[in-house]
Please model this.
Amino acid sequence: MSALDLRLVRTGLPLDATLPMRAGEPLDVVFVEGFVGETVIGLCADEMHATQPVRIDVALAVPRLGACTTDRIDDTVDYSRVRDALRELLDAHRHQLLEAFAETVAQRMLAAFAAHWVRVAVAKPRKFQDVDAVGVVIERRRAPASEPRTSGGERSVLSLIGAGMVPHSAP
Model:
């Protein structure tokens, strides 16, 4: 098993990558691991008004990156753009649950970076004294081209309902 395969196994990425792409098309995984930012998120009274640290890991599977041969930043996913998107989401979101926040991160990554697949882990370190962290890990695949999306790249309300995800408005 190669070093990359070991890395994928450790991060939980699929080695067979059954993604919507042409047969035999190479797939590369770009990741940002251990990003930590501050945000207001949670349901408990002590979480609703004060920021707390949130750790985010993102892995994006994209068709073979041209940068492998060109060595040009324009031919790959720019890590700094991923980082900037995470910072922006931490500042702007109004989610209470890590699950909802992770979904927003995943949809943004799929739309902004033309990824076929994304894995997002969001954790609250030190939420409880007797655990290192609590959190959620989600994986999403790019929807088929025929599935309706909003102008921001998110799935339409009807497709979300069809997938069993019923959107709701914030209180």
Summary: The longest strand covers residues 27-39. The chain has one domain: 3-162. The two ends are 50 Å apart (CA to CA).
